[in-house]
Amino acid sequence: TFPHFSFDHIAHFPQQPVCIMKLQIFNDKQEIALHVAQKIASLIQTNDEKQKPTVLCLPTGSTPIPIYKELIKMHQNESLSFKNVFTFNLDEYFPMKHNNSQSYHYYMKNHFFDHIDIPEDHVNVPSGELDIGDYVSYCQEYEKKIRDLGGLDLALLGIGRTGHIGFNEPASEKDDRTRLVVLAHKTRKDAKDAFGGLNNVPLKAVTMGIGSILDSRNIIIVATGENKAEIVSKALEDETIPPEQCPAKFLREHPNCDFLVDKVASELLKQNQTPWLTTDLVHFTWNSDMAKRALVWLSEKTGKTIFQLTDEDFHQNQLTTLVQYYNNDVDTMCQEIFDDILYRIDTHTNSLLPINPEEKVLIMSPHPDDDVISCGNTLLTLINRRRGKNMTVAYQTSGCNAVSTDELKDHLRFTQMSARALKMEEKEPMIREVVSSIKNNSIQENDLIRELKANVRKSEAVNALESLGLDESDAVFLDMPFYYRKGKVLLDEDYNLIVDLFNKVKPDHIFIAGDLSDPHGTHGLCYLAIQEALKRYRQQGSDVRKCWLYRGAWQEYPIAEASVFVPSSKKTLDRKIYAIYKHGSQNLSPMFPGEDSREFWERARDRNMATAKKLSDLGLPSFYAVEAFYVCNELPSV
Questions:
Q1: Residue 627: active-site member
Q2: Catalytic residue among 31, 92, 143, 169
Q3: 443-469 pLDDT, tens per residue?
């Protein structure tokens, strides 16, 4: 297990306050949730004993949901009472009706307040329903309520990808109080999926200010998931960014501020990327994996291949202890690490892929296009070497949410025009009615529309597989229920679908999406569902030989972390791109592209070619493109 890591950052930043924020790294978000819930419960119980109210500042979003779940369990199972707790939420959109499903009033009732015994008049969530001219006095009164209760005992916070806290966007100031603000375009863009388009996202919001938050006696910031790794690194370590551009930095000078992150959110911190530069080298312990990371880093930093590195390169870049670890024999070190990476490259003479056609291969794809985007080259390699035998591709969700109504209209119009030729005249009026409703913007999302959109994705997936050499019979569409469930909560019926699939296929090798930075977190939920299903499958006495984690749609495995590299030619990459093109609903203007402006085929091409170049730059063989995998037996925690 990944050990807890804690230290106080005492680093000076240009024109910035000294950072005394305490960083703690946990295995996963569940560990963080339990830790924070226990801390809040202890605070409540201590104040109850003193007959004092507990005053909390609470956030919304996906990050605090596991924390709220733990607190609810403590209330239900351990008699934790919230009767003497007062809560003040950080923010709310404006304008926004309280009963709107995107309202933070709605969120807090659904995820927390309706499940505990907190009195209704103890709950304070900023209102988005007032006239704009009333907000100056309203915000002043919001602050007064907090002061009258003795101030905040604890502010629980998340951090946005721009470094914003609440809706304190870049350009916010340290002394800002509760106020109405204009939302940054990036913040609105992040929210557009939830609102059904950017034009539906409010332009303004009411938020507690940085000054209001700094007044809290204790602060906890939580960041979880790979998509927060970049902003965690910037907030803690980037000396070039002033607090005005990354408001979370204002909190570094608070005397009682804990920054809690999970393992994947901490990945880009220097202590993880280059621990030999941030640790006391006298007590630093080298091993072969760390040595490989350091050598790859040094090669990239100096612009030299592995065998071009000299003793001076190591000594001048604080790697003297690494040289000593190899008994001052740089040549042997470089040879061993070069050979280690070289052996991880799959070739006909060094076949690392499961090419035995008697071994059953199962490819799990969160959405109907992740398989070809992330491992299309490898799929082609396996199909060619195995002649397509014993290969199954399982699509975990329908992906219907990513099909626009305009895209659906185009597919239905073709069906309408083809109705007579296909002897389906009786269906033509119904199809024409749906097409007309879409054109008039009067269509309502319902089970029929969702099923039609799902069929768009399914047909695209089958077309893509056929372009690679597999058949429709090799595809399985699980259509996992969590995808439609409110809050996207995984339940037994989701796990059982996968267990049943395992029992049917009896896979020896499973390929699983390991890039968890997709905008809606579907990849992460699909991963957790497989992890639990594998556990249950093994409890039945069955097992899987290897799990192959792939990335590509949202990120790639670093050279030093990958277990296997699968190279490909330009012709193979072109066939992969062609298969991605078969997913027409996701080309040109996909509904959920994330922050990357490139199309998915461009991302896949660029990442695969970049991995090939990195290997070549190390002095390893040159390839046109390379896909990287992390191979394991037990899935790592996320």
A1: no
A2: 169
A3: 677 888 899 999 999 999 999 999 999
